[in-house]
Model the fold of this input.
Amino acid sequence: MEEKRKMSTLEKTARRYLQERGVTVEDIGELVMYLQEKYHPGLKMEQCVYNIERVLEKREVQNAILTGIQLDILAEQGKLEEPLQSIISSDEGLYGVDEILAFSIVNVYGSIGFTNYGFIDKQKPGILKKLNDHSSGNCHTFLDDIVGAIAAAASSRLAHSAKGEI
Done:
C-alpha cells in the first residue's frame, strides 16, 4: 500500500487555486482519457488521475499554476497596467505568453506532451470548453492552457509508463 505523502505548502496552494477556479482532478482526468483512450485499450479513470497526481507533485507545475491563476485574477480585478490588462482580459490570440507558461508544464515529460497539448488546445473538450467561455465574466487566459498542459503532461507520463520508461 502506498504511503501517504506530505504535501508542501506550495502544492496545497496550487491545488486549492485550481479548485477555487472550478477545476477538479477529475475534470483533468477526462481530458487525459480523451487524449489516451484510443492508445490504451481498457484505460481507467484511476490511471488518469494517478498520472495527474504525479504531475501536480512537480514544483515547476505548481509554480506555473500559481503564476497563471494570479495573472488571471489580477486581470479580472482590473489591476494590471495597460496594454497588458486588455490583452489578458480579452485573451488576445496573438499574446502567446499563456502558452509559453503552459509549455513549462508540458516540458516536464518530454516531446510527446507538445503534441498532446497542441491537439487538446485546438479541440477544447470538456473543462477547456467551459474555461474558454468568456460569457461568465471570469478570466481564464492562463488557466485553460495550464489545465490543458497538465492533461498533456499526464498523458505523456502515461504513454511513457506504458513503455516502461517511467
